[in-house]
Structure to design on (231 residues):
């Protein structure tokens, strides 16, 4: 697992030649902005551990502080290397902030970092075993509702049937959200306690499965919404 202690990766300052850890933004020797290294990640860029629970107010403060320090206006008269470094870091900062402030994007990014193929926002082609019954029932009901609409059944009656049909899916979606939160908290605790790699891997695999199932459910609910709008 990539959460095992990592060897310190250094980059060379292009101004003074001193070695600087990739997590630093400025050279500890000459204090000039460093060229963006390609060995870090969004978490370390903000000086954060790879945890899924983030204090958003703290993230916002870090973002604003770094935004000021990387702003190109400060490097108007600097060397071309420093100007490029400020632009690169400012762009990377925006990408990192956009991902880390969204819980699901944060999970998907962590899965990628930890070598677990993500698929949270990509629709799963098939529902999990536990969902098959609910999916079959919903699709059957939707077919009947479409037939009833063509037969001239009043819209109010059909709308009640749609609301009843989506309730089990809504309930499953709510359970998934709670499970995702629980697994995120478990990952953070495992990181704090140095849990065995296999245990941490199991948590990430469970998160991956939930994100895929969540995407499938989102598609089902979108189908129900289209039917409602058709009424």
């Amino acid at each position: 697992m990539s959460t095992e202690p990592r060897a310190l990766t250094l980059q060379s300052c292009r101004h003074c030649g001193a070695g600087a850890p990739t997590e630093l933004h400025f050279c500890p020797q000459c204090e000039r902005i460093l060229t963006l290294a390609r060995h870090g990640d969004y978490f370390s860029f903000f000086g954060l551990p790879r945890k899924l629970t983030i204090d958003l107010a703290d993230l916002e403060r870090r973002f604003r502080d770094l935004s000021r320090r990387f702003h190109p206006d400060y490097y108007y008269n600097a060397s071309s290397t420093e100007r490029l470094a400020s632009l690169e870091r400012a762009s990377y900062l925006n990408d990192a902030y956009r991902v880390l402030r969204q819980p699901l994007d944060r999970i998907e990014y962590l899965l990628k970092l930890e070598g677990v193929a993500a698929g949270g926002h990509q629709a799963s082609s098939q529902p999990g075993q536990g969902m098959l019954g609910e999916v079959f029932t919903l699709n059957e009901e939707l077919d009947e509702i479409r037939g009833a609409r063509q037969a001239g059944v009043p819209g109010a009656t059909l709308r009640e049937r749609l609301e009843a049909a989506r309730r089990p899916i809504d309930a499953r979606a709510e359970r998934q959200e709670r499970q995702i939160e629980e697994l995120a908290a478990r990952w953070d605790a495992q990181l704090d306690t140095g849990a065995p790699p296999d245990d941490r891997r199991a948590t990430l695999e469970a998160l991956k499965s939930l994100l895929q199932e969540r995407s499938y459910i989102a598609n089902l609910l979108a189908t129900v919404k289209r039917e409602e709008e058709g009424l």
Q: What stands out?
A: The mean pLDDT is 88. The first strand starts at residue 10 and ends at 12.
